[in-house]
Write a structure and sequence with these properties.
Number of strands: 5
Strand content: 5-15%
Radius of gyration: 34 Å
Number of helices: 23
Helix content: 40-55%
Structural class: alpha/beta
Largest sheet: 5 strands, mixed
Amino acid sequence: IREALSDLKECNISVGDLLLYVSDPSNYAGRERHEGLFKSSDRLHCILNLWVGSSSSDTARAAVHAWALWYMAGVLSEEGGRTTEKGTLRTRVSLIEKPTSESLSLESTYDVLIDDCPNTAYLLRSFCTTPRQERTMSEVTKKKNKILGSTLSILLSARSQQNSYIRQVVGLYLYASGVQRQVFSVLSHFGISCSYPTLVGRPDHADHMDTLHRTLTMWPRSKMGSGTGCTQRNLSYACRTALRQVVRDGETSWVYDNVNWAEKIAQQILGWKDSQTNGTCATAFPLFDASPDSMKTSDLNDAFFSAPPLSHHDIRLTASENVELRKLLTYTALRILLAQGGDRFKRFEEDIDKLAPMPEMNIPLHKTDIYPLPAMQIDESSTAGNAEVVKTIFNEAGFDTNSEEFLKFVRILWGDQLSVARLRSATGIRVGHDSPSNSMLNNVYGPGLFHYQLSACGAILEVHWGDPSTCTVTSVAR
């Protein structure tokens, strides 16, 4: 090798000239370059390590270091541009066009970011990981991924305002938690959250109309996610659009209940006093495996008019039904014990699953998607209020309640027992005096599962503690 270096020097050729010649593709020295440098990656790594090692000169180390920074800057910039173009953190793509619970999952988004920016994540992980943590990385990998994903989201939002999905999700969480505006201002400057005007809109663009009377035509699709609307308005538009789509795709049911909150005055001023606001919230969900042929109003009316009078035999359980009921109650108690009993009962899970009664009546395992409706400033404590709630729900879902097509199919609604009683009362009052749609003859009502659970808990407490209204000595409720 010394003799070869001497020969190069005699020919006035430096080592640098030789490497440049071999590395230049126009010289067609690819085979020599591969055989001499890249056939064994260890050789190239060794060369680079020697160039930046302590035995090398400061000039050499600085040159290699400057080139490495320049090269990695280009790689990271390319990853940031590619991720921005992909739209992973674009609010319209990740949140507005897919308003589901999955679209609000930060962990899944972090995993996608780490996959889209592997080199950036590798450098950041090296920066925040000590050698000791590297040896026990299995315990902190999940936590590290959250930190890396959060850091990547902040850096990408600084690159482009379009990468604001994580910031707006955090802003929604802060807003729902009742955080004050000053916190939004501080966190937005750090790139952690969006600003308050971005979330709720500026005062001059705020929509002061009643949410009940808003329609989808008020928010054109061209403005959705274009930056002119606030996050809340765009998200509300997306949720309402998704609701109408699921109603068009299949049979849907609705559940509603009242919501009440107190509005406290901020300052003690003469004439100002606390007030209570009453409203109603509703949620839609698709009916599992329900076809239009099984939801015809004509079949419901025929079954109703042909049914015999109700007798006590229809509600009293037979001997076999009592046996099945006891099995169901036993299985339910065991499942509660398994879920709440801690790790000691986990080993009985397979045995308890074998005791599940009536497997032929179980529907296939699936997840029911829910679609919220806008809050309605309607007090459902009256018969007319409940009827107005039902009408508003159908109008929001895009139904033409006066059409014959709407009356052909049964609509199932759920609420508390008092709401169900008032809706049935409204039907009894209006039938024969109003149109079939206003009489709500194609509606079927039932108490919601939550209210069934409340009734069951109340019955259990009354059976075991006694009736508190009797105030007897034997009543444990005293």
